[in-house]
Amino acid sequence: MKAVALTQYLPIEAPESFLDVDLPKPQPTGRDILIAVQAVAVNPVDTKVRAGRGKEGVVEDPPRVIGWDASGVVEAVGDAVTLFKPGDAVWYAGDITRAGCNSAFQVVDERIVGRKPESLSHAEAAALPLTTITAYEAFFDRLGIDRDGADKGQSILIIGAGGGVGSIGIQLAKHAGLVVIATASRPETEAWVRELGADHVVNHREDMVAQVRALGLQHVDHVAIFNDMRHWAAAVELVRPQGGIVTIDDTDLPMPMDGMKMKAASLHWEFMFARAMHQTRDMIEQHRLLTWAAAEIDAGRIRTTVSQVLSPINAANLREAHRLIETGKAKGKIVIEGF
């Protein structure tokens, strides 16, 4: 089967950072389903894995396929599968401990796969799974916000709102009835987050505390850090007593906790691969949340966050997508479709 893979961990400028290869077609067993991949999206996690910090000089043989955001069609199923059948259109993010989606076919555990929204093309759908799972788990599982509006009127500051996770996060927060303060640092990302429903926009490259308080808010109920932990001090200052902060950034930066302690505030880590990586008993929750999200999309309450589509799925286009992500200026999601 066609695939795009790496044999060594390199900067994206290196022509060998991705290679077009031919690999054996996998076969599903147990609860795995075999998916014919139609479109994939690129996330910051892809660029971090490809760069391979600490893996300089390591050679992958056979070549390693990465990628964790896809939409496709079920080709075959394992003998223990109960949720899908061949011909079903699906969307999913996958499992970081297994081969990724940058290949014509991929095997994925059915418990972390959902039926694709009927109203979206494969390219539009591929933009959403990883970021939807991340934002959903961050807000509703980690921070404990009620998905269906019981916490209506509470406020949330989404730092890094113009990226992939922030773009769907704004929509999920508005769906739950929250007042959304989004951060953006460029005119185009400010317009983007307002288009997605943000109530207020502040610039995370300037004094966020002063900007939020200028809105008449001494504190916010929740803070989501969806870019990096340079904003930790501002997040701690702004979160209300007994409020919560959730972050997706693995950081080496200092994170002083005295302010959190004095407020009895909580810190939550979100890592959407944790359920599959550790085979948790509630793995199927990702199937359920993708099913819920698909229904909300088909009802017109959530929209795709795709901002650019490249074609076909090959090494050159994956290098370009990774390059764009690494600029730190991408808005929404970059998708590649069709082998």
TrEMBL record:
UniProt-recorded Gene Ontology molecular function terms: oxidoreductase activity; RNA binding; zinc ion binding
Stretches assigned to the Enoyl reductase (ER) domain: 16-336
Top-level lineage group: Bacteria
Cellular-component GO terms for this entry: cytoplasm
Keywords (A to Z) from UniProt: Cytoplasm, Metal-binding, NADP, Oxidoreductase, RNA-binding, Zinc
InterPro entries in alphabetical order: ADH-like_N, ADH_Zn_typ-1, ER, GroES-like_sf, NAD(P)-bd_dom_sf, Quin_OxRdtase/zeta-crystal_CS, Zinc-ADH_QOR/CCCR
Compartments reported by the entry: Cytoplasm
Chief localisation class: cytoplasm
Gene3D superfamilies for this protein: Medium-chain alcohol dehydrogenases, catalytic domain (3.90.180.10), NAD(P)-binding Rossmann-like Domain (3.40.50.720)
Family: Belongs to the zinc-containing alcohol dehydrogenase family. Quinone oxidoreductase subfamily.
Subunit structure: Homotetramer.
Protein's UniProt name: Zinc-type alcohol dehydrogenase-like protein
Organism: Pelagibius litoralis
